[in-house]
Records
---
Amino acid sequence: MIYEAAIFKDYPVAEHDDAARLRRRDPAALTGAVARYQHRLYRYFLRLVHDPASADDLFQQTWLNVVRQIHRYDPSRSFDTWLFAIAHNAAIDLLRRRHGENVEDCTIASHMPDALTSAIARERSAIVGDAIRALPAIYREALTLRFEEGMQLEEIAEVTGAPLSTVKSRVQRGLEALRGSLRKEDLL
Amino acid sequence: MNCDSVRELFALSAAGALDAAGERLVAEHARECASCAAELASLGEIAGLLGGLPSQAPSPGLVLQTQLLVAAEADRREGARLALAAGALAWAIGIATWAAGRAIAGSSPVWIWSIWCAAVGTIGSGVAATLVSRRRAERGGL
């Protein structure tokens, strides 16, 4: 297996005791979860919606939805997956409402934005970040959940509500599109 | 297996999404084909880059504000649940004891029953308010 990175050891996930306390809407458990997941959740939103103001709104909306829907959470299942499914729904709603953003658009941008050309001198990671921004939302989401959140494809399917075969296709096409973009920038 | 067929597996290999047989197939092919090996390496490189992308952290103000919102929402829902439970209990007690009251006092006018229910309801509301305030105190004033 080539891919080994991006499993976040820094941010421990909810334990079973925490899950039970969350289901009871224990404020200490809820506020603890907000702190624990802040980086992962916020990063996910930024990758999807780009602008910090929208990411802020989605962050708050997602946690309020968690409080309202926590009775539906099954503690025997992954809290991460459940949380990100709520986050996914909030983000997709916003993207659909937002003018000009086509969530389901499967056509890859044929050229990179001009801003990328002027960014060649920047760090490689910054160039990759810009290249990701040019991808359709469904690819951005699949790549960030797989490579930044370290989720298995089955978990991504659960979060997004898409069939496993669709998730595989999104990861595959997203990576290939990214490679095409980065080659144009002579990064590979 | 020809190059075109096996290349379809490269992105999944880079994503760590192939089973052992698939990985073996890809590795065997890459050993024999330099151009495919380069393709595979480039996708692996992208996977590594994706895992190390920098990201902006949420502001401490946003996190704190969200924590306060979440705690307030949880508190509001808990209070509503307790009030509903106490109200239902008060009604149940009122109705149950009315039957006992009638047996003792005989056939009473409606106003006696109304006073009785109001008294029980008031006691129930007091109990609910006490439970909510105790719960808040236990939660450390969040």
---
Amino acid sequence: MAASAQLLPGTLDLLILKAVSLGPLHGYGILLRIGQISHGALLVEQGALYPALFRLVRQGLLKTKWGTSENNRRAKFYELTVPGRKRLGEETESWNRLVAAIALALRARPEGA
Amino acid sequence: MLAYLRSLTFRFLHRDALERELEDELRSHVLHRADDLERAGLDRGAAERQARVEFGGHARFKEEARDALAGGLLETLFRDLRFSVRQLRKSPSFTVAAIITLAVAIGANAVVFSAINGFILRPLGLPNEETLFTIERASDHLAGESYPNYIDLRDRVRGFDGLAAFIANQAWFGAGGGSPARAWVYEVSGNYFDVLGLQPYLGRFFHASDERGPGSAPYVVLTYASWRTHFLGDRRVIGRTVELSRHPFTIIGVAPPGFHGTVLVYTTDFFVPLVEQPQVEGTSLLDVRGNRWLAVFGRRKGILTNAQAVADLNVIGAQLEASYPKDNDKMSFVLSRSTLGGDAFEQPVHAFVIGLMLLATLILLAVCANLGSLFAARAADRSREVALRLALGAGSGRILRQLFSEAVLISLVGGAIGLWGSVLLLDWLATWRPFPQFAVILPIEPDARVYLVALLLSVASGFLFGAVPVRQVLRTDPYQVLKSGSVSPVSRRLAMRDLLVALQIAICAVLVTSSLVAVRGLERSLRGNFGIDAHQVLLVDTDLATSGYTPDRMMAMQQRMADAMRTIPGVATVGMVAQTPPMHLGWNDSKVFGDDVADLRPGNAAADAIQYSVSPDYFRAAGTALLAGRAFTLHDDQHAPRVAIVNETFARKVFAAPDRALDQFFKLPDGSRVEVVGLAQDGKYTANLAEEPQPAMFFPLRQMPSSETWLVIRSPRDAEELSAAVRATLRALDPGLPASIETWTRDMSGALFPARVAAAALGILGAMGAIVAITGIFGTAAYSLSKHLKDLGIRMALGAGELDVIQAAVGRALRLLAVGSLAGLVLGILASRVLGSIVYEATPRDPVVLIAAVLAMFLVGLVATWIPARRALSVDPSMLMREQ
């Protein structure tokens, strides 16, 4: 497993939206997907997931549907809504800007060096 | 809003469903994890256990999830309440103080509102009361007609489904055996109960068809209360005979519970038909057209407007004026809702209770301002906690909700306690008989409306003072607070808190000023010039006519009674007065005319004078000073020329100047000429302390005989002892003669009652205002001291004097006190004008009141800042510096 990184506050919602954008998932599936797409670098604490999920549902960014999982178990699936997809775009863009800016700032060297 | 409510109810109703869904989802999660673990090689049991452990604190997490899931308002509300209780228990003294001040304020509001409820909102509780109207004269707003005028109005009116009339009176009541007792009787027209639309509780009512001329309907209807007390609720009472004023009456029915007649503040024992008036009172008023003694009310036809009904009445009034010019004038009418005998009586009462309500609301406002500033202070102290919670992600909405639920919790508890206290007080007041000789009741039992208002006031005040710290919390910048350790002082917020304190002090000063005005007014009215000296005087009320004395025997018996009283040891003077003494409820008056007036119609009268028939010794016994001329003698009788003694106002009105009145003549409505032989001092005559100077005239009892005379016995002896002696003496003269004996000062309590109630109510409100002011100033001073303790320590260490320290510690509070008091004083003086109509001689432009108000506020300030100032002086700088 690669070295894991601490989740920055506010990034969990973004990660959930991203994970779900790739296809409907149930809660546990979202955890797995986040681990998978970050190559195991980002670990989401199980307990923190559901409050975030419900919050996103209430904001209308996700919708839910009960269905059957790949393990043949009943599970609640989360799906992106149209506003959810839009939000994901915006958040991704602003995240990239932030990262670029911070990276730029960190590359700075003493003047005249 | 509606959609929100619907979703709220949906959530509430389907809470179990949501809960189950959450449970299902979490279980599904754990099972999926267990599947994975199983695939990794664990056996099923171990896998599930491991999955659960990984998932962590199930319960704690579920709580959070539930919050996010439903935003479940009710649940969070309960949690907020639990949290509030915890918070409040951390500072018990603050909580208790807040609850007590609120309880007092809301209790006061509940009591005053019950008075409004009883006097204004819920008058008599009769069926279809909206079409019942009292018929008042437009000229004086009093309800009063003579019996012949009433009969003409009743028979000719078309705009009403019946006009009824009534008068409250006293009668001697005997139910076989024992000496008769005073009882209250309503003499009512035959259609009285039918116009009111009442059904009897037992037996039957009398009707218009029962009346066939004077004395034709000797029936009596009992009130429910008197049926219970006089007849112990015996259902066989119907058909029994009782004696009223020595005449037999047959009990035919019992009125429904709660109905106590048509005057709001009086209760009665019996209802008898008006045609029995001569039997009950001894003399007949039924054929006198010029005497307005009956209150008339009617049920307006539903299809008419008030204006149409009045027009109808006025047409009849004009006819009656034209037909009987000697007896009738100004017969134009208005309809009124009055249940106190006319708007002239009703308006001051309404103005007063509404004034009280304003003052009570002011107290509540002052308490809210007080608690608001305390809450703001608490919020400032808790800024660190708030900042921490904000930083941890709590929404500011949640924090505000917390603050509000604390405030509302306090206000609800305070309100409940206040309401409980006020209900106790009201229940006591409702059964209280202010003076036994009058059947006065206070119609202020609390009902659902009172409870509702108390609840609304509690919640509203909770939100009001809870809202004070809102802006402050919303502006909290977590990083700033956490960095510096406390809120950096923002001058504007402190100014707002100061404003609240100043406002509160101003309100309290209003209360203190107006209560002082009232108390001072009462004190003056008690010492006022009544034109009599009521101390050491016993009044003995006898009625010879209802005891079977014929007119020719009456006068001799009266003389014998007076002579017998004079033989009682210790009796200085015995006078007689008919029909009621001054300052008793009720009086007689008559128009008087100048000697040169030939046409004796009411419009030509020089004055409407209150009249008394008195014995020669009356003036000495009553303590009324004769300013000029002579007193009556026993020779002023039927054979001598008619004479009178008049008071100064009479002399001024009829003869233009007091000194010109002697030996002049005036005329009475019957045309007889009367010579003025004496001039008496002015006084108060009606039972209204605020009355303007009234013209009054006294006639010799022998020239104007009356069956109902009062003995006025002046004696320095103890009243109890003397009463016993008087009673024994009367019994020796005539064992069956009923008499009521009372000191004159007690008899006057009826007249003094409104002033006393006003002074008591305002005094209590004023004291409450002062207490609220003290807690407010104390709170401010104590709080600012606790904030500046360190600063003070430094000053002291640097050698500041005591005065400087006190100035620094409580100077701000005292400055606020000065500004607030000044504003309140001015407002209070303006507000006190209303009092003038109730409390005799209540004037705010009284130096004593002003000085007392300033002194009271100064005392308030002293009391409130004493402890903080002492604490400031006892600060030990070295200790303080070491501590922090």
